[in-house]
Amino acid sequence: MNVGMLDRLVRIVIGIALLAFALGYILPGTGWNWVGWIGVVPILTALLGWCPAYTLFGISSCPRKSLR
Predict the structure, then answer these.
(1) What is the pLDDT along the chain (68 residues), one digit of tens a residue?
(2) Is 21 within 8 Å of 27 (Cβ atoms)?
(3) How many beta carbons lie within 10 A of that of residue 36, not counting itself?
(4) Which member of 15, 16, 40, 43 has the greatest number of CB atoms within 10 A?
(5) Residues 3 and 50 sit within 8 Å (Cβ to Cβ)
(6) Full 3-state SS string of the chain
């Protein structure tokens, strides 16, 4: 896992907003609504708790565990 709880929450909110745009609830009829389907990606990464881009760049938003 490399996605922390706050990061997950932000990803879900952004994903829902993008899907709402794709379905026409936000700015309907712009012709760019298909772009909103990208919202599936942040929702999936939030649900799985793992982001391939974070792995690629060596990033993690999970709190570090102490070695005590």
Answers:
(1) 899 999 999 999 999 999 999 999 999 989 999 999 999 999 999 999 999 999 999 999 998 765 56
(2) yes
(3) 21
(4) 15
(5) yes
(6) CCCCHHHHHHHHHHHHHHHHHHCCCCCCCCCCHHHHHHHHHHHHHHHHCCCHHHHHHCCCCCCCCCCC
Q: For residues 68 and 52, give the distance between their C-alpha atoms in angstroms, rounded to a whole number.
A: 29
- Within the chain, what is the greatest distance between any pair of CA atoms? 57
Tell me how crowded residue 52 is: count the other CB atoms within 10 A of its CB: 11
Residue showing tokens 């896992």? 1
User: CA–CA separation, 5 vs 45, rounded Å?
Assistant: 12
Non-local CB neighbours of 51 within 8 Å, separated by 6+ positions: 2, 3, 45
